[in-house]
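Sequence design from tokenized structure. All designs in this work follow the same two-part layout: the structure record, then the generated sequence. An example of the structure record is given first.
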């Protein structure tokens, strides 16, 4: 959730410390190339993006973005809204191209019932550029918050991870073999406090989750794997200024690349090099032709050629303060981010 830049208490290892307003670490500067149309609803509404890359015609790629007060948008690469599906209380969103009769499956955490977590499934009609509802899957007791998908490399089995607001993470096996998709919770994991952003590396089967006031963790995504998390980075006011929010991946090779987390507290993004997840730097999206970004919730990164503006990949982020307009999503060139960080 968006928060002003204030001195906030952070509790780590059982003792309190006070964060600085801004990280003391060097922070590179980049600017957005484009932005989406603002969402229609006021206040804290836009939340999380997902990207579908059209490999055959990159200029026809699409961006999906949630408005957690109204529904889910589909935008073109110029940021124009091409369709809207009403569905109040959708929060985080992810997608996978699963082939078969569905093609591109879009999944979102559904908060319509705050006592019962749910996952909403859609099919992305890439020709019509709109989302078609498929099913709403019950998950577990509690409030759904974060959500990400994993398509296991060895057998293409599909799983969804629903991050509940209290830090519990329910793993759902998704069955697409029937006319209406179904799901079954196969295990649960737990972080100590409020958590949301997550992403799974399909190559390695590693789940990354942001615990907002604590930092970034990783889990074994396998349904029979360990439920004990491994700490990657603390929200200690340096690499990450709490809240730790959205998480995204830039995969390279069999297990390399980068994982990125939104350092919402000082309007920046921390970057970690895989496979060890070593810290390599941080950046901020400042004012340019397009206004800068503040208080980012969800982020997404998709590598590949998206045309002249995004030749190596597209980084999409929620902008929590797009005044005088309502919130929207900013689109940033991944090649420009790499140059700014010296990657």
């Amino acid at each position: 959730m968006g928060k002003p830049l204030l001195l906030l208490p952070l509790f780590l290892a059982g003792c309190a410390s006070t964060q600085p307003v801004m990280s003391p670490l060097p922070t590179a500067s980049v600017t957005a190339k484009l932005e989406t149309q603002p969402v229609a609803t006021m206040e804290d509404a836009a939340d999380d993006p997902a990207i579908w890359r059209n490999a055959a015609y990159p200029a026809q790629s699409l961006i999906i973005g949630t408005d957690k007060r109204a529904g889910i948008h589909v935008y073109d690469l110029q940021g124009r809204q091409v369709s809207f599906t009403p569905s109040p209380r959708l929060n985080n969103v992810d997608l996978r191209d699963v082939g078969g009769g569905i093609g591109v499956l879009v999944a979102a955490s559904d908060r319509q019932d705050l006592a019962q977590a749910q996952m909403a499934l859609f099919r992305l009609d890439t020709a019509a550029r709109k989302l078609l509802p498929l099913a709403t899957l019950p998950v577990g007791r509690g409030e759904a918050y974060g959500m990400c998908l994993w398509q296991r490399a060895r057998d293409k089995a599909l799983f969804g991870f629903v991050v509940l607001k209290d830090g519990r993470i329910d793993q759902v096996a998704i069955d697409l073999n029937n006319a209406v998709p179904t799901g079954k919770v196969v295990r649960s994991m737990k972080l100590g406090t409020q958590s949301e952003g997550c992403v799974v590396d399909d190559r390695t089967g590693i789940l990354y989750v942001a615990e907002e006031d604590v930092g970034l963790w990783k889990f074994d995504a396998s349904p029979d794997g360990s439920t004990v998390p491994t700490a990657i980075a603390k929200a200690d006011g340096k690499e990450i200024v709490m809240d730790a929010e959205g998480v995204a991946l830039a995969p390279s090779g069999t297990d390399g690349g980068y994982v990125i987390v939104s350092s919402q507290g000082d309007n920046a993004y921390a970057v970690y090099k895989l496979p060890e997840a070593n810290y390599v730097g941080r950046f901020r999206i400042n004012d340019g032709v397009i206004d800068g970004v503040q208080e980012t919730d969800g982020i997404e990164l998709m590598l590949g050629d998206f045309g002249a503006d995004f030749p190596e990949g597209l980084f999409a982020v929620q902008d929590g303060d797009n005044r005088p307009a309502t919130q929207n999503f900013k689109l940033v060139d991944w090649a420009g981010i790499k140059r700014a960080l010296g990657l």
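The first strand starts at residue 9 and ends at 12. We note this feature because it recurs in several other targets discussed in the main text.
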